[in-house]
Amino acid sequence: MEVSPNLSEKARHDYDLVLKAKNGDQKAYAELLGRYRDAIYFMLLKMVNNPSDAEDLTIEAFGKAFKSIEQYAPNFAFSTWLFKIATNNCIDYMRKKKSAPLSIETHGDDQEDPSHNIQCENLDPEEAMINHQKMKLMVDIVSKLKPRYRKLIELRYFKEYSYEEIAQELDLPLGTVKAQLFRARDLLFNVLNNVSHKF
Q: What is the band of 16 on the pLDDT scale with cuts at 50, 70, 90?
């Protein structure tokens, strides 16, 4: 695939990582996450003005990007593609939350919006295997967290409990659950970042 001559050195390095990720290199996924996690988080925090929601949306954005990484093409920077996905996912979230259309709209140029290429069809066996490998990596990383943080991550992201359900399950105040989950996510991202720097 031809790489745009307009890509910066940083964008070219990102593309090298994307190629490795497409071949199943988990360290490449971890490095991409480490490079853009904070920037995505702070952009989303400005949009939703809620640290907990911003963290959830950050994880969702990377999840969608990694799931659809085969669709990334190097005619624009990976960061541009990633920020588009994060922004559109956040707009969808706010639209659903408010149950009313936002003033931010697309203007008929959906075909130029890379995040609109994301498909939600059933995975073929190869994709399912790759996703299983990604999940295994995540489970391995989560297992390195302290037990109380590990439990929070498992309940929130593997079992998809609400904050209220977690509070009830662990017999903790809701505020404590949110604070500890925020810390747990931070630790998880740090572990992922460290994985990418060990190689």
A: very high
Residues 35 and 38: their CA atoms lie apart, in Å, by 8
Which residues, 6 or more positions from 69, have their beta carbon under 8 angstroms from its beta carbon? 18, 21, 22
Return d(Cα 15, Cα 32) in angstroms, integer. Answer: 10
The closest alpha carbon to 113, from 136, 140, 86, belongs to: 86
The model carries a pTM of 0.54
The dotted CATH code for 126-199 is: 1.10.10.10
CA–CA separation, 88 and 66 (whole Å) = 15
- Tokens 């890509």 label which residue? 7
Q: Which amino acid would we find at residue 176? A: T
Q: Is the dihedral of CA 36, 42, 47, 50 positive or negative?
A: positive
From the options 1.10.1740.10, 1.10.287.3510, 3.40.50.300, 3.40.50.720, give the CATH code of 1-101: 1.10.1740.10
Query: What is the band of 18 on the pLDDT scale with cuts at 50, 70, 90?
Result: very high
pLDDT in tens, 68-80: 888 888 888 899 9
- Non-local (6+) Cβ contacts of 45 within 8 A are 51, 54
Is-contact 62 37, C-beta < 8 A? yes
